[in-house]
Design a protein that fits this description.
Distance between the termini: 16 Å
Shape: globular
Helix content: 55-70%
CATH topology: Vanadium-containing Chloroperoxidase, domain 1
Number of strands: 2
CATH class: Mainly Alpha
Number of helices: 9
CATH architecture: Up-down Bundle
Largest sheet: 2 strands, antiparallel
Strand content: under 5%
Structural class: mainly alpha
Oligomer: single chain
Radius of gyration: 19 Å
Order of helices and strands: HHHHHHHHHEE
C-alpha cells in the first residue's frame, strides 16, 4: 500500500535532534508569533465584531443539524482525537515499519496543542454572545482548539496518505480528511462556540502544524551521489 520513499534506515540521534530543532521548534515559534499576532489584531486593535455571523447560524438551527453537528464537533474532543491519533500512528507504523514516518500525526498534534494553549491565553478572546450548545472549555475562543487539533491530525494523515499507491484510495482518504476538518470548523461556529475568525485561525494553525510535521526529518536519498537532502516525507 505504501511506497517506501527515500531513506529506509532509521535516522540517527544527531539527525533527529537537529531536525527537531531546526525543522520543528524554530518554524513552530514563527507560527506561534503569527497566530498570537493575528489574534491580538482581531481582538485588541480592530475589535472585530462577528456577532451577526454567529446569530445567523443560530437562526438556522434545527434538531437534525443540532444532532449532526454534535457528532461532528465531538470528533475534535480531546479524548476522541487523542485516541484517533494514537490509532493512526499505530496503523502507519504497522504498514511502514518506519517510526519517523508514523509519528507525523502525533508530532503535528503536539505542535498544535503547544501553540494553541499559549496563544489562546494571551489573546483571551470571549466566546460568542449567543446560546452555546456545548460546554465551553476553560480556554479562550481564539483560535479554535477543536478545529486546530482536528486539522493538525487529519491533514497530517492526508499528507501521509500521499504514499498510498492506489489512486482511488489515496484521493478518497485525503478528501475525507479535509471534509472532517472542515466539518468540525463549521460545527463549532454553528454550535455557538467560536467566531468565524476563530475557526479560520484554527484551520490555518492546524495546516501549518501538519506541514511542519510532514517535513520534520531531513534525510538524504541513499541512492543519490549528489548529497542533496530531501525531507523524509518525499
Amino acid at each position: 500500500m505504501y511506497g517506501q520513499g527515500p531513506g529506509h534506515s532509521a535516522p540517527t540521534g544527531a539527525t533527529t535532534g537537529r531536525s527537531l530543532l531546526t525543522r520543528v521548534v524554530l518554524p513552530s515559534l514563527l507560527v506561534w508569533l503569527a497566530v498570537t499576532g493575528v489574534g491580538l489584531l482581531v481582538t485588541d486593535v480592530f475589535g472585530l465584531d462577528e456577532g451577526g455571523a454567529n446569530r445567523a447560524f443560530v437562526e438556522v438551527r434545527t434538531d437534525r443539524w443540532d444532532a449532526i453537528t454534535s457528532f461532528v464537533s465531538s470528533m475534535g474532543n480531546t479524548q476522541v482525537l487523542m485516541a484517533t491519533c494514537a490509532g493512526i500512528v499505530l496503523f502507519l507504523w504497522w504498514r511502514s515499519r518506519q517510526w519517523w514516518f508514523a509519528v507525523v500525526p502525533a508530532l503535528s498534534l503536539s505542535i498544535q496543542v503547544s501553540i494553541f494553549l499559549t496563544a489562546s491565553m494571551l489573546v483571551a478572546r470571549e466566546r460568542p454572545a449567543v446560546e452555546q450548545l456545548d460546554q465551553a472549555a476553560p480556554t479562550s475562543s481564539f483560535p479554535s482548539g477543536h478545529t486546530g487539533a482536528t486539522t493538525s491530525v487529519y491533514l497530517a494523515l492526508a499528507l501521509c496518505a500521499s504514499r498510498i499507491q492506489a489512486a482511488w484510495l489515496r484521493v478518497t482518504v485525503q478528501l475525507l480528511c479535509v471534509a472532517v476538518a472542515g466539518g468540525v470548523a463549521l460545527s463549532r461556529v454553528y454550535r455557538g462556540m467560536h467566531h468565524p475568525t476563530d475557526v479560520l485561525a484554527g484551520l490555518m494553525l492546524g495546516a501549518a502544524c501538519a506541514f511542519i510535521a510532514w517535513n520534520w526529518l531531513l534525510r538524504r536519498t541513499p541512492a543519490s551521489d549528489s548529497g542533496v537532502p530531501e525531507a523524509i516525507s518525499r
